[in-house]
Amino acid sequence: MIELKNIVKRFGDLVAVNDLSLSVGRGEFFAVLGPNAAGKTTTIKILTGLIKPTSGTAVVAGFDVQTHPLEVRRRLAYVPDFPFLYDKLTPWEFIRFTGQMFRMEDAVLESKAQELIRRFNLEAYLRKPIEGLSHGTRQRVAIVSALLHDPEVFVIDEPMVGLDPHHARVVKDTLKERSLQGMTVFLSTHQLSVAEEMADRIGIIHQGRLVAVGNREELRQQSGASGPLEQSFLALTAQEANLKEERSTGPAKS
Fold first, then answer.
1. Domain for residue 165, yes or no?
2. 3-state class (DSSP) for residue 10
3. What angle do CA 67, 71, 76 make, to 5 degrees?
4. CATH code of the domain containing 24
5. How far is Cα 3 from Cα 60, in angstroms, rounded to an integer?
6. Is there a domain that residue 244 lies in?
7. Number of structural domains, the chain?
């Protein structure tokens, strides 16, 4: 469902993403981890068509993101870490607007919206202006709107930001259920516990490079570290930092 091939993104002299290739299958729950400024959000923006890669290709559900953007957007949903919502609308108006953008029939829109609204406990906020809602409530509105059209691919950046433990659990359960039903989930997070709990596979990006990918046991083997995911993550990012230093300075002289 997702194919990233030799993606490079430069901003002047800065290489934000460096020759990144990755495949994520239908129904797979894939999590991306990395330190700040590792290239995670840049990769997501390329995947969702918000920015163009300097080179390389991104394909979603069989369609090239750059050459067939509308076909991709029909099949994809994206929730950033700080989602943009129209502040003067109410949640119900925004949800309906989103469904209409995807040309959903009114009866189908109403049925799916009500199911998601109940699940995410938004009934009390439906008629209130979005500008007065907390960040966590806005996040729930964004997720409900994104799930409304049953996307084939769901991309979400830091989904637990601002959510209390109850609603974080609702998001986790909903995304996992959807992935088991065939929706591909591409999740970026700093929370190693979320990745460890939810993901079928995990990719670690550091300094623009995909330094490791695999399930929990495979990452342990690649890193040479035992114990929790945190130890593998720290070992792999440290290894990449050392390799980058060696590439920039050359081999040590005896």
1. yes
2. strand
3. 115
4. 3.40.50.300
5. 7
6. no
7. 1
Residue 46 corresponds to which tokens in the numbers above? Answer: 């390329």
Whether 241 maps to a domain, the answer reads no
Helix (H, G, I), strand (E, B) or coil at 175: helix
Query: How many C-alpha atoms does 50 have within 13 Å on its Cβ side?
Result: 13
- Per-residue pLDDT 10s for the chain (254 aa) are 999 999 999 999 999 999 999 999 999 999 999 998 899 999 999 999 999 999 999 999 999 999 999 999 999 999 998 888 999 999 999 999 999 999 999 999 999 999 999 999 999 999 999 999 999 999 999 999 999 999 999 999 988 888 899 999 999 999 999 999 999 999 999 889 999 999 999 999 999 999 999 999 999 999 988 888 999 999 998 876 666 655 556 655 54
| Calpha distance 178→150 (Å, rounded) | 9
- Tokens 């300075």 belong to residue: 249
Q: Name the residue range of residue 207's domain.
A: 2-231
Rounded CA gap, 246 and 232, in Å? 21
CA angle 58, 200, 237 (to 5 degrees): 75
Q: What is the DSSP letter of 253?
A: P
Q: Which residues of 155-194 are buried (b: 16+ CB within 10 A; e: fewer)?
A: bbbbbbbbbeeebbebbbebbbebbeeebbbbbbbbbbeb
Q: Is residue 240 part of a domain?
A: no
